[in-house]
Design goal:
- This protein is mostly beta strands.
- 0% of the residues lie in helices and 47% in strands.
- The strands form two sheets. Strands 2, 4, 5, 6, 9, 10 and 11 form a seven-stranded mixed β-sheet that branches.
- The protein is globular.
- The N and C termini lie far apart (39 Å).
C-alpha cells in the first residue's frame, strides 16, 4: 500500500491560486496512478483529477478542466494539484488517493474515478475560498 500525506491547503480569495502536494512513502509510489478527490460539507466525495504512474496520462472532472493541473515528480515521490482561478464552490477538503493496483494502462485514465477504485487515501487538506 502507498501511504499518502497532503499539504498546501489554506485560505485564499476567489480568483487566487493554491498548489496542493501529496507526498508518498514507499518505493512503489512510481508504479501507482494517483487521484485527487474533494469533499465539501454535507456533500459526497467527488473526483477532481487523476494521473497515471508515469505522468503521461491525466484526466480532469469537467468543472476543473482549464483551472486545475495535476502533475507528479516520481523522483520526489510527490503529486501536485495546481489550482488557479479558485471559486468559493471549490471550498472542500481535498484528498489524494492511490489506485488499487499498479501500472494501469493509459486508457484507464479516460474517465473519472469512483471511490471504489481507490486503494489508499491521505488524511486530507482543507481549502477555503472566500468571496
Amino acid at each position: 500500500q502507498v501511504q499518502l500525506v497532503e499539504s498546501g491547503g489554506g485560505l485564499v480569495q476567489a480568483g487566487g491560486s493554491l498548489r496542493l502536494s501529496c507526498a508518498a512513502s514507499g518505493r512503489t509510489f512510481s508504479t501507482y496512478g494517483i487521484n485527487w478527490f474533494r469533499q465539501a460539507p454535507g456533500k459526497e466525495r467527488e473526483f477532481v483529477a487523476s494521473i497515471n504512474w508515469s505522468g503521461v496520462s491525466t484526466y480532469y472532472s469537467d468543472s476543473m478542466k482549464g483551472r486545475f493541473t495535476i502533475s507528479r515528480d516520481n523522483a520526489k515521490n510527490t503529486v501536485y494539484l495546481q489550482m488557479n482561478s479558485l471559486k468559493p464552490e471549490d471550498t472542500a477538503v481535498y484528498y489524494c488517493a492511490a489506485d488499487r493496483l499498479p501500472y494501469y494502462r493509459d486508457t484507464y485514465y479516460s474517465s473519472p474515478r469512483s471511490i471504489t477504485d481507490i486503494g489508499s487515501w491521505g488524511q486530507g487538506t482543507q481549502v477555503t475560498v472566500s468571496s
